[in-house]
C-alpha cells in the first residue's frame, strides 16, 4: 500500500492537545502528509479538517474506510489505546500510537503481536527520544567518553497545570496513573541510556496538589538493572509557580559524568582529560518532525521502527510495576506483572 517516493498518507485519530504537535510537524514534511482526521467530537474534527485541508470524520470506522489513509497516529486518551490500536492494525494501516502503548503489559503485547502478524510498522510516541538533548546524550555515551553508564537520573518536574489536565488524566483507571501517563517517557530514556532493560522498580509518590488527587502528581521511580546499574526517574506536575519547569539529566559512567541541568546551554561531559560541552538547541522544535520522519521511513520499509516496539513494551512493564510498587510499598521485579 505504501509506495516509495510518494508522501505517506496519514490519518489522525483524536484531535485534542498532542495532535496539534503532530499536525504542525506534518505541515513541514515532504515524506508524509495529513489526509484525514477524526474525533468523537465531530464538530471539532470538521473544524480541524477545514483548517488542515483534509478529510474530517466523526468516527474511526469512517477514517479507516478512507483509502487515502495509509498510516494512523492515535492521539486519544490512554485507556482507548489498545482497542483503537488493534482496530487500526486489523484494518491494515501502519500505526504510530501515542504513549503509552497500552495500559497493561498484556495489552501492549496484544497490539505488538497484531502489528507483527500483519507486517505493519508499529511505533510508539516516546517523543523524548527525539529531542536535541536526548540525542546528544546518547551520542556522548556512544562515543565512549564517559565509559560504561552505571547510573542515570532523569528529572522532569513541572509547574502546577490543573485544571489544564483533562479529567481522564486524573483518573488512574483511564490514564493508568502517573507512571503510565508521563513516567513511561523517563523509564524509556533511562533504559536507553543505560543500554539495558530495568529489572526492578521501587516507587514513592505524593498527592502534593491535593489529597483528593487519585494520581501521584509527584513521583519518584528507582530503577535497578541486571548489570548492577541503577537509575532514578523523578517527575512532577504539581509545582508552584505554575510556570515552573525543572529539567536535569545525568548519566554517570565508569570514566566520566554527563549532565544537562536546567540552566545549561548544552550537555557537559566531565572526564579525566577535561570538560567537553555539547551545544544543543533545547527548543524541541524538531522533536515531532524527527519522530514522524522515523515513522514514515519505517512504514515505507526503509528502516526499523525507532524506538523498537520492545522498548515501548518494556516502558509499560516498568510503569505498571511502578504503580504496583506505589500500592504495595515494596520493590517490584519487572516481568512479575506481565
Ligand atoms: N508524546 C508526548 O509528549 C505526549 C504529550 C501529551 C499527550 N500525549 C498522549 O497523547 C494522547 C492524547 O492526549 P491529549 O492530551 O492530546 O488528550 P486530549 O484529551 O486533549 O485529546 C484527546 C482527543 O481524543 C478524542 N477522542 C477520545 N476518544 C476517541 C475515539 N474513540 N475516537 C476518536 N476520538 C476520540 C477526544 O474527543 C479528544 O479530542 C494520550 O495518550 C497522551 O498520553 C503524549
Index terms:
338 residues; alpha/beta; Rossmann fold; Dihydrodipicolinate Reductase, domain 2; six-stranded parallel sheet; 36% helix; globular; binds nicotinamide-adenine-dinucleotide
Strand order of the largest sheet: 14-13-12-11-7-10-9-8-15
Report the span from N to C terminus. Answer: 34 Å
* Unreliable stretches covering 5 or more consecutive residues: none
CATH topology of the largest domain: Dihydrodipicolinate Reductase, domain 2
Molecular structure report:
The two termini are 34 Å apart. The mean pLDDT is 92. The chain has 11 helices and 15 strands. With 338 residues, the chain is of the alpha/beta class. 36% of the residues lie in helices and 28% in strands. The strands form 2 sheets. A 9-stranded mixed sheet has the order 14-13-12-11-7-10-9-8-15, covered by helices on one side. A 6-stranded parallel sheet has the order 3-2-1-4-5-6, sandwiched between helices. It has 2 domains: 8-126, 3-Layer(aba) Sandwich (Rossmann fold); 128-288 and 316-333, 2-Layer Sandwich (Dihydrodipicolinate Reductase, domain 2), CATH 3.30.360. The radius of gyration is 20 Å and the shape is globular. Nicotinamide-adenine-dinucleotide (NAD) binds next to helix 1. Residues 13-19, 38-41, 44, 60, 75-78, 80, 98-99, 125, 127, 166, 181 line the site of nicotinamide-adenine-dinucleotide (NAD).
